[in-house]
Every structure is written in C-alpha cells, then in structure tokens.
Specification:
InterPro entries: RNA_pol_sigma_r3/r4-like (IPR013324), WH-like_DNA-bd_sf (IPR036388). GO terms for molecular function: DNA binding. This is DNA-binding Lrp family transcriptional regulator. By secondary structure, the protein is mostly helical. 47% of the residues lie in helices and 0% in strands. It is globular.
Length: 66
C-alpha cells in the first residue's frame, strides 16, 4: 500500500495487526508454558519480536493476564 508521499505504509512498522484479548492470552501461555521464543511467537501472530517482549513484560508481574 502506498501513502501520499510515495512510501510504503508497511515499511515503517506502524501497520501491525491488532491483537484481541485471546491473542494476548495465547502469547502469554505460549511463552510461559510452552517456552516458545519471542521470534517464533511474533512470526505466528504477524507482529514484531519487540511487541511480543513488550506484551510479556507488561503482563508477567501480575497474577492475571488482563
């Protein structure tokens, strides 16, 4: 997809898939219980590894995923 300036909208990393609560829960379970790497989770959900790490870091301290 091209923007008005002629650059690709996907090239800057701003167009990422939105994640539902179920997706976030699945990411946490894959990371904690299956010990799946951030890279593999990112590939599975179509997001960046930095976003996976951010999700895991924000939710690992609490007693609940939400």
């Amino acid at each position: 997809m091209k923007t008005a300036q002629g650059s690709s909208a996907r090239g800057n990393g701003q167009c990422e898939r939105t994640l539902s609560d179920e997706d976030i829960y699945m990411i946490m379970m894959l990371h904690q219980n299956q010990r799946m790497s951030s890279r593999d989770i990112a590939r599975k959900f179509g997001i960046t590894t930095a976003r996976v790490r951010n999700i895991v870091a924000r939710r690992s301290g609490g007693s609940c995923c939400g």
